[in-house]
Amino acid sequence: MQGLIADIDLLEEEKNQAESCDFKTTKDDGTKARRKLYIESYGCQMNFSDSEIVTSILKKEGFGTTSSPEHADVILINTCSIREKAEQTVRNRLKVFNAVKKKNREVTVGVLGCMAERLKSKLLEEEKIVDLVLGPDAYRDLPKLVKQAEEGEKGINTFLSREETYADISPVRLNSNGVSAFISIMRGCDNMCSFCVVPFTRGRERSRDPHSIVAEAQELFDNGYREVTLLGQNVDSYKWSEEENNKARLNKKDDVEEIINFANLIEMVAKVSPDLRVRFSTSHPKDITDEVLITMTKYENICNYIHLPAQSGNTRVLELMNRTYSREWYINRVDAIRKILGEECGISSDMIAGFCSETEEEHKDTLTLMDYVKYDFSYMFFYSERPGTVAAKKYEDDIPLEVKKRRLQEIIDKQREISLQRNKLDIGKEFKVLVEGTSKRSDQQMQGRNSANKVIIFDADVPKGTYVNVRVTDCTPATLFGELI
Ligand code: SAH
Ligand code: SF4
Ligand code: F3S
């Protein structure tokens, strides 16, 4: 059983190699609130960011937060469906919460997020302990459903919205180091990659009002934050126009206004302050434009790092995956990044080993793509069939588990080798580092990241949130070590 360790306790190295099911939990907020909320969150940063919105919604109802399910009045588990293992982990956690509920019959247990959306009322039927089920677009209903549950009535809302962006809700920063924070800029996904459950669990793509995004970034900066990461499943397809928004809301026509695209948005956020670093994730290779890359060069505070998941290096497999780009297209985008942003730009990927019908040769294409791009790191998985997806309906999940695992191991070994090569290139170089706090390895050292998103550990005693210059002296595949200049 996994203990109550937060994701931050894992070294980057371990995270990249294992198909980890990290989770984050609420902390004790130290308030004397009469009622306490405990949330455990799985899955992607979007989910962690949603838990901050959920906490904000319940805080308005007088809830404080606790780090222990035993002390909670409401236990929520914000779930992920991306792979089978993620769902299994949640099922196991529900067993643990069942034991808590046996001791305290009054506690309300709710399932939120992607698994709630995927399984809907089945969750209430299959998991007797669950009192409420809420999908990602239904969190405003939480106070009502908690109240109902307290009166003994189970509740469910898995309605998916075309408009909800929670733009007006100011998230309670749960897992933050006080230096960097996440801002959701869009929700949902319209891409329909054949292996992926997200379009079903998160609904249609919609972009959030840019003014509320800039206001949130400004507020974070005013509160001492020095880095924001703009989040979405596909940030490069961000699109917002005043006119469309008004039409949808008020059903009236306004003067035609300019459309704000992702390049415009990062520029708006970058202008909040030159001391506020701007990052974003995830970029879809089909949508990342030269305009975005050129905007990145114009602002020193827009970080020189792009998460550009390839999934596979073979065009036939990419076609089956419905990624809508070929190996050549992907390479063209990488070449554009290297040309416009330089060799030092950090690039990372997600890779899937053993997708339906993938041959040994096609798997090797993934390895050669990795050699070509020289990713700084990758998140690597073996294919896990998800019910209801196009791949589950149309293709046979025919690669034996041992073969998937062996191919995954080859991808992991390759990445390790490339990460080390890339990190070695940094030895002797100087970087501007944003200090995030003491090192995870030792209290005596500080750690931060450079613009390319590399973790650097160094001896110093400086406050977190400050920028320092560090010269790199040594490295592992996952970390750089350096000295303060
Ligand atoms: N929107 C992002 C990905 C979100 S999901 C993008 O398009 O890049 C995060 C990663 O999980 C994916 O990039 C993919 O590598 C992996 N993934 C998604 N579905 C999967 C499945 N069925 N089996 C294995 N890995 C999967
Ligand atoms: Fe899933 Fe593809 Fe959307 Fe990413 S872009 S969330 S992989 S459907
Ligand atoms: Fe998982 Fe949902 Fe994110 S399926 S990866 S929590 S969008």
Automatic annotation (TrEMBL):
Cofactor annotation: [4Fe-4S] cluster
EC number: 2.8.4.3
EC class: transferase
Location relative to the cell: Cytoplasm
Gene Ontology CC entries for this record: cytosol
Chemical reaction(s) catalysed: N(6)-dimethylallyladenosine(37) in tRNA + (sulfur carrier)-SH + AH2 + 2 S-adenosyl-L-methionine = 2-methylsulfanyl-N(6)-dimethylallyladenosine(37) in tRNA + (sulfur carrier)-H + 5'-deoxyadenosine + L-methionine + A + S-adenosyl-L-homocysteine + 2 H(+)
Cofactor-binding details, from the entry: Binds 2 [4Fe-4S] clusters. One cluster is coordinated with 3 cysteines and an exchangeable S-adenosyl-L-methionine.
Keyword vocabulary terms for this entry: 4Fe-4S, Cytoplasm, Iron, Iron-sulfur, Metal-binding, S-adenosyl-L-methionine, Transferase, tRNA processing
Signal peptide: none
Binding residues annotated for [4Fe-4S] cluster 2, in chain numbering: C189, C193, C196
Entry-linked Gene3D superfamilies: Methylthiotransferase, N-terminal domain, tm_1862 like domain
Positions with a binding annotation for [4Fe-4S] cluster 1: C44, C80, C114
TRAM domain ranges (all copies): 424-485
Residue ranges occupied by any Radical SAM core domain in the UniProt entry: 175-421
Molecular function via GO: 4 iron, 4 sulfur cluster binding; metal ion binding; tRNA-2-methylthio-N(6)-dimethylallyladenosine(37) synthase activity
Domain MTTase N-terminal span(s) in chain numbering: 35-151
NCBIfam families listed in its UniProt record: miaB-methiolase, MiaB/RimO family radical SAM methylthiotransferase
Family under the similarity heading: Belongs to the methylthiotransferase family. MiaB subfamily.
Role, per record: Catalyzes the methylthiolation of N6-(dimethylallyl)adenosine (i(6)A), leading to the formation of 2-methylthio-N6-(dimethylallyl)adenosine (ms(2)i(6)A) at position 37 in tRNAs that read codons beginning with uridine.
Subunit structure of this chain's protein: Monomer.
Protein name: tRNA-2-methylthio-N(6)-dimethylallyladenosine synthase
Organism of this sequence: Ekhidna lutea
Taxonomic placement: Bacteria, Pseudomonadati, Bacteroidota, Cytophagia, Cytophagales
